[in-house]
Amino acid sequence: MRKSRSVLPGSRRDRSAITVQGFFPLLFAGMCWHWARWGIAFLSAFWINEVTDSPRMVQLTGTTMWAPLLFGGALGGVFADRFDRLRTIQWQLAVLIPIVVLIGFLEVTEQLSVWMIYPFLLFAGIGWVGDMTSRRALVFEIVGTKKIDNAMAYESFTLASGVAVGNLIGGSVAQRLGIGEAFLVVSALLLVGFISLKWVPRTSFTDVAAPKIESSTVAELKAGLALIRTNRALLSILGVTFLANFFLFSYFPAVQRIGDRIGASPSQIGLIAAMTGFGMMTGSFIIGMWEPKHRGRAYIGGV
User: Fold this and answer.
1) Is residue 230 situated within a structural domain?
2) Do the beta carbons of residue 163 and residue 38 sit within 8 Å?
Protein backbone atom coordinates (compact mmCIF):
# COMPACT_ATOMS: atom_id res chain seq x y z
CA MET A 1 0.00 0.00 0.00
CA ARG A 2 1.24 3.42 -0.86
CA LYS A 3 2.19 5.44 2.22
CA SER A 4 0.29 8.68 2.72
CA ARG A 5 2.50 11.66 2.01
CA SER A 6 0.94 13.58 4.90
CA VAL A 7 2.38 11.18 7.49
CA LEU A 8 5.91 11.99 8.61
CA PRO A 9 8.29 9.03 9.10
CA GLY A 10 9.24 7.90 12.59
CA SER A 11 7.51 8.34 15.93
CA ARG A 12 6.90 11.71 17.55
CA ARG A 13 9.71 10.92 20.00
CA ASP A 14 12.09 10.25 17.12
CA ARG A 15 11.34 13.73 15.77
CA SER A 16 11.50 15.46 19.16
CA ALA A 17 14.38 17.90 19.49
CA ILE A 18 14.26 17.63 23.30
CA THR A 19 15.98 14.23 23.05
CA VAL A 20 19.07 15.83 21.48
CA GLN A 21 21.86 16.52 23.95
CA GLY A 22 22.31 20.23 24.55
CA PHE A 23 19.05 21.42 23.03
CA PHE A 24 17.10 21.68 26.28
CA PRO A 25 19.64 23.93 28.10
CA LEU A 26 19.87 26.09 24.97
CA LEU A 27 16.08 26.27 24.85
CA PHE A 28 15.90 27.13 28.56
CA ALA A 29 18.54 29.84 28.18
CA GLY A 30 16.56 31.24 25.27
CA MET A 31 13.40 31.25 27.36
CA CYS A 32 15.15 33.24 30.10
CA TRP A 33 16.39 35.68 27.47
CA HIS A 34 12.93 36.13 25.93
CA TRP A 35 11.34 36.70 29.33
CA ALA A 36 14.05 39.20 30.25
CA ARG A 37 14.07 41.24 27.04
CA TRP A 38 10.29 41.65 27.06
CA GLY A 39 10.57 42.62 30.71
CA ILE A 40 13.14 45.24 29.72
CA ALA A 41 10.85 46.59 26.99
CA PHE A 42 7.84 46.76 29.32
CA LEU A 43 9.64 48.32 32.28
CA SER A 44 11.41 50.92 30.15
CA ALA A 45 8.20 52.04 28.45
CA PHE A 46 6.34 52.01 31.77
CA TRP A 47 9.00 54.14 33.49
CA ILE A 48 9.14 56.62 30.61
CA ASN A 49 5.35 56.94 30.66
CA GLU A 50 5.38 57.54 34.42
CA VAL A 51 8.11 60.17 34.22
CA THR A 52 7.28 62.05 31.00
CA ASP A 53 3.57 61.31 30.33
CA SER A 54 4.48 61.69 26.65
CA PRO A 55 3.08 59.30 24.00
CA ARG A 56 5.94 60.22 21.68
CA MET A 57 8.61 59.37 24.25
CA VAL A 58 6.86 56.10 25.09
CA GLN A 59 6.72 55.04 21.44
CA LEU A 60 10.38 56.02 21.08
CA THR A 61 11.30 53.26 23.53
CA GLY A 62 9.97 50.66 21.10
CA THR A 63 11.60 52.36 18.13
CA THR A 64 14.98 52.41 19.88
CA MET A 65 14.92 48.78 20.98
CA TRP A 66 13.64 47.38 17.69
CA ALA A 67 15.63 49.60 15.33
CA PRO A 68 18.63 47.21 15.38
CA LEU A 69 16.35 44.46 14.06
CA LEU A 70 15.56 46.58 11.01
CA PHE A 71 19.03 47.88 10.31
CA GLY A 72 21.19 45.09 11.70
CA GLY A 73 19.28 41.88 11.04
CA ALA A 74 21.07 41.02 7.82
CA LEU A 75 24.42 42.02 9.29
CA GLY A 76 23.72 39.85 12.33
CA GLY A 77 23.21 36.88 10.03
CA VAL A 78 26.58 37.48 8.42
CA PHE A 79 28.29 37.62 11.82
CA ALA A 80 26.50 34.44 12.90
CA ASP A 81 28.03 32.68 9.89
CA ARG A 82 31.52 33.96 10.68
CA PHE A 83 31.87 33.75 14.46
CA ASP A 84 31.39 31.24 17.27
CA ARG A 85 27.63 31.29 17.82
CA LEU A 86 27.61 29.97 21.37
CA ARG A 87 30.27 32.43 22.42
CA THR A 88 28.36 35.29 20.78
CA ILE A 89 25.29 34.47 22.88
CA GLN A 90 27.39 34.19 26.03
CA TRP A 91 29.15 37.50 25.44
CA GLN A 92 25.99 39.49 24.81
CA LEU A 93 24.50 38.16 28.07
CA ALA A 94 27.71 38.77 30.00
CA VAL A 95 27.75 42.41 28.89
CA LEU A 96 24.01 43.06 29.25
CA ILE A 97 23.60 41.66 32.78
CA PRO A 98 25.67 44.34 34.59
CA ILE A 99 24.01 47.07 32.50
CA VAL A 100 20.55 45.92 33.61
CA VAL A 101 21.77 45.79 37.22
CA LEU A 102 23.06 49.36 36.86
CA ILE A 103 19.74 50.61 35.46
CA GLY A 104 17.90 48.93 38.33
CA PHE A 105 20.26 50.41 40.92
CA LEU A 106 19.93 53.90 39.44
CA GLU A 107 16.13 53.66 39.52
CA VAL A 108 16.08 52.41 43.11
CA THR A 109 18.33 55.28 44.20
CA GLU A 110 16.31 57.79 42.12
CA GLN A 111 19.29 58.68 39.93
CA LEU A 112 17.93 57.31 36.65
CA SER A 113 17.46 59.90 33.90
CA VAL A 114 15.29 59.74 30.78
CA TRP A 115 18.26 59.96 28.43
CA MET A 116 19.83 56.83 29.96
CA ILE A 117 16.93 54.59 28.95
CA TYR A 118 17.38 54.98 25.20
CA PRO A 119 21.07 53.94 24.89
CA PHE A 120 20.21 51.06 27.23
CA LEU A 121 17.37 49.95 24.95
CA LEU A 122 19.55 50.35 21.86
CA PHE A 123 22.16 48.04 23.36
CA ALA A 124 19.46 45.53 24.35
CA GLY A 125 18.20 45.65 20.75
CA ILE A 126 21.68 44.98 19.39
CA GLY A 127 21.95 42.03 21.76
CA TRP A 128 18.58 40.84 20.49
CA VAL A 129 19.91 40.76 16.92
CA GLY A 130 23.05 38.90 17.93
CA ASP A 131 21.14 36.39 20.03
CA MET A 132 18.39 35.76 17.46
CA THR A 133 20.68 35.12 14.51
CA SER A 134 23.27 33.11 16.45
CA ARG A 135 20.79 31.08 18.52
CA ARG A 136 18.74 29.86 15.55
CA ALA A 137 21.85 28.86 13.64
CA LEU A 138 23.13 27.08 16.76
CA VAL A 139 19.81 25.24 17.14
CA PHE A 140 20.18 23.93 13.60
CA GLU A 141 23.75 22.79 14.30
CA ILE A 142 22.69 20.90 17.43
CA VAL A 143 19.47 19.17 16.28
CA GLY A 144 20.14 18.73 12.54
CA THR A 145 17.73 18.80 9.62
CA LYS A 146 15.45 15.94 10.73
CA LYS A 147 14.41 17.61 13.99
CA ILE A 148 14.63 21.28 13.05
CA ASP A 149 10.85 21.64 12.55
CA ASN A 150 10.17 20.43 16.07
CA ALA A 151 13.03 22.52 17.46
CA MET A 152 11.72 25.71 15.84
CA ALA A 153 8.24 25.00 17.22
CA TYR A 154 9.76 24.89 20.70
CA GLU A 155 11.74 28.05 19.93
CA SER A 156 8.57 29.84 18.82
CA PHE A 157 6.81 28.70 21.97
CA THR A 158 9.52 30.10 24.26
CA LEU A 159 9.61 33.34 22.26
CA ALA A 160 5.85 33.69 22.68
CA SER A 161 6.16 32.90 26.39
CA GLY A 162 8.52 35.86 26.62
CA VAL A 163 5.79 38.22 25.43
CA ALA A 164 3.40 36.76 28.00
CA VAL A 165 5.61 36.10 31.02
CA GLY A 166 8.03 39.00 30.47
CA ASN A 167 5.23 41.56 30.52
CA LEU A 168 3.54 39.84 33.48
CA ILE A 169 6.77 39.79 35.48
CA GLY A 170 7.49 43.41 34.63
CA GLY A 171 4.03 44.61 35.64
CA SER A 172 3.60 42.43 38.73
CA VAL A 173 7.04 43.05 40.25
CA ALA A 174 6.88 46.77 39.45
CA GLN A 175 3.58 47.02 41.32
CA ARG A 176 4.66 45.03 44.37
CA LEU A 177 8.32 45.99 44.75
CA GLY A 178 9.10 48.84 42.36
CA ILE A 179 10.43 49.41 38.86
CA GLY A 180 14.09 49.32 39.89
CA GLU A 181 13.59 46.06 41.74
CA ALA A 182 11.86 44.65 38.66
CA PHE A 183 14.95 45.45 36.59
CA LEU A 184 17.02 43.51 39.14
CA VAL A 185 14.69 40.52 38.75
CA VAL A 186 15.22 40.75 34.98
CA SER A 187 19.00 40.70 35.50
CA ALA A 188 18.60 37.54 37.60
CA LEU A 189 16.72 35.89 34.72
CA LEU A 190 19.55 36.79 32.36
CA LEU A 191 22.08 35.33 34.81
CA VAL A 192 20.15 32.04 35.00
CA GLY A 193 20.10 31.88 31.20
CA PHE A 194 23.83 32.59 31.04
CA ILE A 195 24.59 29.78 33.49
CA SER A 196 22.37 27.37 31.52
CA LEU A 197 24.57 27.80 28.46
CA LYS A 198 27.29 25.91 30.33
CA TRP A 199 25.49 22.67 29.43
CA VAL A 200 25.29 23.44 25.71
CA PRO A 201 27.95 21.33 23.95
CA ARG A 202 30.42 22.77 21.52
CA THR A 203 29.44 22.05 17.94
CA SER A 204 31.71 21.24 15.02
CA PHE A 205 31.68 24.94 14.17
CA THR A 206 33.28 25.82 17.50
CA ASP A 207 35.53 22.79 17.87
CA VAL A 208 37.33 23.30 14.60
CA ALA A 209 38.79 26.56 13.46
CA ALA A 210 36.47 28.09 10.91
CA PRO A 211 37.84 28.08 7.39
CA LYS A 212 39.00 31.36 6.02
CA ILE A 213 36.19 33.10 4.20
CA GLU A 214 37.35 35.05 1.21
CA SER A 215 34.10 36.91 0.49
CA SER A 216 33.58 40.20 2.28
CA THR A 217 30.68 41.11 4.54
CA VAL A 218 29.46 43.67 2.01
CA ALA A 219 29.51 41.06 -0.78
CA GLU A 220 27.48 38.64 1.34
CA LEU A 221 24.92 41.34 2.15
CA LYS A 222 24.58 42.18 -1.56
CA ALA A 223 24.10 38.50 -2.38
CA GLY A 224 21.38 38.23 0.25
CA LEU A 225 19.54 41.29 -1.08
CA ALA A 226 19.83 39.96 -4.63
CA LEU A 227 18.24 36.70 -3.49
CA ILE A 228 15.11 38.59 -2.44
CA ARG A 229 14.54 39.73 -6.02
CA THR A 230 14.81 36.22 -7.47
CA ASN A 231 13.20 34.08 -4.75
CA ARG A 232 9.44 34.66 -4.77
CA ALA A 233 8.83 32.47 -1.71
CA LEU A 234 11.36 34.45 0.33
CA LEU A 235 9.90 37.74 -0.90
CA SER A 236 6.41 36.59 0.11
CA ILE A 237 7.50 35.58 3.61
CA LEU A 238 9.40 38.83 4.16
CA GLY A 239 6.47 40.87 2.87
CA VAL A 240 3.94 39.24 5.17
CA THR A 241 6.35 39.47 8.10
CA PHE A 242 6.92 43.17 7.44
CA LEU A 243 3.21 43.96 7.40
CA ALA A 244 2.50 41.91 10.52
CA ASN A 245 5.38 43.39 12.51
CA PHE A 246 4.63 46.94 11.31
CA PHE A 247 1.42 46.88 13.33
CA LEU A 248 2.45 44.44 16.08
CA PHE A 249 5.54 46.18 17.44
CA SER A 250 3.97 49.65 17.40
CA TYR A 251 1.22 48.22 19.59
CA PHE A 252 3.31 47.10 22.58
CA PRO A 253 4.60 50.53 23.71
CA ALA A 254 1.10 51.94 23.15
CA VAL A 255 -0.23 49.53 25.79
CA GLN A 256 1.25 51.85 28.42
CA ARG A 257 -0.89 54.73 27.18
CA ILE A 258 -3.96 52.51 26.90
CA GLY A 259 -3.51 51.29 30.47
CA ASP A 260 -2.91 54.83 31.69
CA ARG A 261 -6.11 56.04 30.04
CA ILE A 262 -8.31 53.35 31.61
CA GLY A 263 -6.64 53.68 35.02
CA ALA A 264 -5.07 50.21 35.03
CA SER A 265 -2.48 49.17 37.62
CA PRO A 266 1.03 48.09 36.54
CA SER A 267 0.13 44.41 36.84
CA GLN A 268 -3.05 44.96 34.80
CA ILE A 269 -1.08 46.76 32.10
CA GLY A 270 1.34 43.83 32.06
CA LEU A 271 -1.60 41.45 31.67
CA ILE A 272 -2.95 43.45 28.71
CA ALA A 273 0.43 43.26 26.98
CA ALA A 274 0.78 39.58 27.88
CA MET A 275 -2.41 38.46 26.14
CA THR A 276 -0.72 38.68 22.74
CA GLY A 277 1.93 36.30 24.03
CA PHE A 278 -0.65 33.79 25.24
CA GLY A 279 -2.16 33.81 21.76
CA MET A 280 1.27 33.24 20.23
CA MET A 281 1.94 30.37 22.63
CA THR A 282 -1.33 28.73 21.64
CA GLY A 283 -0.50 29.03 17.95
CA SER A 284 3.01 27.63 18.45
CA PHE A 285 1.64 24.69 20.44
CA ILE A 286 -0.92 23.89 17.74
CA ILE A 287 1.68 24.03 14.96
CA GLY A 288 4.09 21.89 17.00
CA MET A 289 1.46 19.19 17.55
CA TRP A 290 -0.01 19.43 14.04
CA GLU A 291 3.32 19.35 12.16
CA PRO A 292 1.78 20.65 8.90
CA LYS A 293 3.24 19.42 5.64
CA HIS A 294 2.51 22.68 3.83
CA ARG A 295 4.22 25.18 6.12
CA GLY A 296 3.63 28.15 3.85
CA ARG A 297 -0.13 27.69 3.93
CA ALA A 298 -0.09 27.37 7.72
CA TYR A 299 2.00 30.54 7.93
CA ILE A 300 -0.30 32.59 5.72
CA GLY A 301 -3.37 31.17 7.45
CA GLY A 302 -2.00 32.15 10.85
CA VAL A 303 -1.31 35.70 9.73
Assistant:
1) yes
2) yes
Q: In the prediction, which pLDDT does 117 show?
A: 97
- Split into its structural domains, the chain has a count of 1
Alpha-carbon dihedral sign for residues 107, 69, 186, 182: positive
Q: How far apart are the first and last CA of the chain?
A: 37
Q: How far apart are CA 132 and CA 134, in angstroms?
A: 6
DSSP assignments along 164-209, one per residue: IIIHHHHHHHHHHT-HHHHHHHHHHHHHHHHHHGGGSPP-HHHHSP
What are the distances in angstroms from CA 258 to CA 244, 248, 262?
21, 15, 6
Whole-number pLDDT of residue 282: 82
Tell me if 184 is assigned to some domain: yes
Rounded CA-CA distance 108/209 in Å is 45
Q: Phi first, then psi: what are they for 11, rounded to 5°?
A: -75, 170
Quote the pLDDT of residue 302.
Answer: 66
pLDDT on residue 297 = 72
- What pLDDT does 281 receive? 81
- pTM listed for this prediction: 0.81
Q: How many CB atoms lie within 10 A of CB 84?
A: 17
Query: Which CATH number belongs to the domain containing residue 187 in this structure?
Result: 1.20.1250.20
Q: Dihedrals φ, ψ of 112, to 5°?
A: -75, 130
